[in-house]
Specification:
The protein has 2 domains: 1-99, Orthogonal Bundle (Rna Polymerase Sigma Factor, Chain: A), CATH 1.10.1740; 103-161, Arc Repressor Mutant, subunit A (Orthogonal Bundle), CATH 1.10.10.10. The longest helix has 28 residues, at 64-91. The protein has helices at 13-37, 40-56, 64-91, 105-112, 115-126, 131-138, 142-160. It has 161 residues and is mostly helical.
Length: 161
């Protein structure tokens, strides 16, 4: 499906502002989403869907960066929930020992973390967000973020030792 882009003009200040925002945020958001969902293609889809929502609501959004962070993380969380349900159902039908995974050990460990812990780790150590910014992105109390990071790090350390 091909989409015709509007030309950027001085009169289309909204389009210019969004275009600059999009160019700045796209690679950052795709990388974060990729770390959460473990797929570049899926991450691109998630981020582009979130960007469409931002564009549609551009005039009403005060902080588009925070909005797109939350939208991307929420979409990653929804996908993780769907995948967990799928794996739980498929696991009943398939012998898991029949196929060995060729992933890196750390990838496998990070994939096993609960979504909130995995998201907190990615947003803290990759995106270098503050605890308050992570809480905003995950739509949770600030006090939840620190324990998620601590539990995730303890889990990873325990598996690596």
């Amino acid at each position: 499906m091909q989409v015709d882009a509007k030309p950027l003009t001085a009169a289309g200040g909204r389009d210019v502002e969004f275009s600059n925002f999009y160019a700045r945020e796209l690679p950052i958001q795709v990388r974060r989403a990729c770390l959460l969902v473990r797929s570049t293609e899926v991450a691109n889809d998630i981020v582009h869907d979130a960007m469409i929502e931002v564009f549609q609501r551009w005039d009403d959004i005060r902080e588009p960066g925070a909005f797109v962070n939350r939208a991307v993380v929420n979409r990653c969380r929804d996908l993780a929930r769907r995948n967990a349900t799928h794996l739980r159902l498929v696991g009943k039908l398939v012998n898991r020992s029949a196929s060995a995974s060729m992933q890196e050990p750390l990838d496998d460990l990070i994939d096993r973390l609960p979504f909130n812990q995995r998201a907190a780790i990615v947003l803290r150590f990759y995106a270098d967000l503050s605890i308050a910014d992570i809480a905003t992105a995950l739509d949770c109390p600030t006090g939840s973020v620190g324990p998620w990071i601590d539990r995730a790090l303890k889990t990873l350390k325990g598996h690596l030792e």
